[in-house]
Amino acid sequence: MTRGRLVYYCTSTVNGTANIGLRIDAGDAVPIWKQIEDGIRRLVAKGALAPGTAVPSVRSLASELVVNPATVAKAYQRLADAGVLVVQRGEGTFVADAPPPLTRGERAGLVREAAQRYAGVVVTLGVPAGDAIDEVRKVLAEYERASAGGNKR
After folding, report:
1. Cβ pair 76, 85 in contact under 8 A
2. Same domain, 27 and 93
3. Number of domains making up the chain
4. Does one domain contain both 84 and 118?
5. Within this chain, do residues 40 and 3 fall inside the same structural domain, yes or no?
6. CA distance 44 to 89
7. pLDDT per position as a tens digit, 14-58
8. I need a labelling partner for 83 at 20 to 30 A (CA). Which of 8, 55, 89, 99 fits?
9. Residues 85 and 133 in one domain
10. Same domain (yes/no): 22, 39
11. Which of 106, 108, 116 is nearest to 29 (CA)?
């Protein structure tokens, strides 16, 4: 008998951010707070969370994902420290108008870390390298289309 992996999705939240598409995998070795942080960064990069958009409160997101509120708070704090989110006392937490750009070294480190995780999955599944690279190209094209579509306001 094989055990399935628990995967949580946040599909309805408060503050007008319904269906933000945040995905958490409880079976992943990556800590949940890091999955939340990375997921929100991805949503911001794709334009799914536009500048100035309210993000779910810590309590509501924790409830939706069935995780400890301290886990969500840690991810939000790290995102605020990085300038991705802005906390407005009494108002809520919002996507920053202009997140600070990463240095070349920071960007390279993040890309390498993500590539190592992806390569580990690819090797574990026995996927040929060419197929894995094709999938990356497809996903990058989707992000580019989404970003171009979001900029045509």
Report:
1. yes
2. yes
3. 2
4. no
5. yes
6. 21
7. 333 344 778 888 888 889 999 999 899 888 877 788 899 999 999
8. 8
9. no
10. yes
11. 116
Q: Which of 59, 80, 98 is the last residue of a domain?
A: 98
Is the full-model pTM beyond 0.85? Answer: no
In this structure, what is the dihedral angle of CA atoms 109, 115, 120, 124, given to the nearest 10 degrees? Answer: 180
Distance from C-alpha of 33 to C-alpha of 37, rounded to nearest angstrom: 6
For 69-77, which contacts have Cβ atoms below 8 Å and span 24 or more sequence positions? 71/32, 71/33, 71/36, 72/33, 72/36, 74/33, 75/33, 75/34, 75/36, 75/37, 75/40
Domain that holds residue 87: 1-98
Which of 20, 5, 24, 3 minimizes the C-alpha distance to 68? 24
State the Cα–Cα distance between residues 87 and 42, nearest whole angstrom: 19
* Euclidean distance between CA atoms 42 and 129, whole angstroms: 24
Co-location of 8 and 46 in the same domain? yes
d(CA 64, CA 11): 8
Residue 76 to residue 78: CA distance in whole angstroms: 5
